[in-house]
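Q: Give me a backbone?
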Amino acid sequence: MRRFSIRKATREDSEQFLTLLTALANFEHLKPPSGAAKTRIIRDIFVRERAKLFVASESGKLVGYALYFYTYSSFLATPTLYLEDIFVPGEFRGSGIGKSLFIRCVREAVAQSCGRMEWSVLTWNRDAMAFYEKLGAERMDAWCLYRLTAAGLRALAQESS
């Protein structure tokens, strides 16, 4: 049985968090954050407080994290907790760490009077889908995710209206 704790991250967790963030990028077959991006995310979490971070710790080592922020539901007129990332490295999966991180986010959403909690899952990540559905989450098939990248944003901003 693993002995871990879930807590709010501190600035001292930055290096280990960034290692886990890179591991998530590798797991998702994505390019890891650049040095500049790493600097920005640490600033945005611990200085600007644009995002919030829970970490799972075992004997002083981070073994998972959940990164989240708030959006707003106009129809509910309440905040929504948006779970950007939840990650536990493979060697620590199956021990309840992911579920504990998720439940900690749920409790935070309740404490902040959120009307809902939302997140996205890669279509190939069937294990994650099964995990969330087992906890009672509903897949939103009626919605499509759209994205404008930074380059797309800049190009569109230059167009005349």
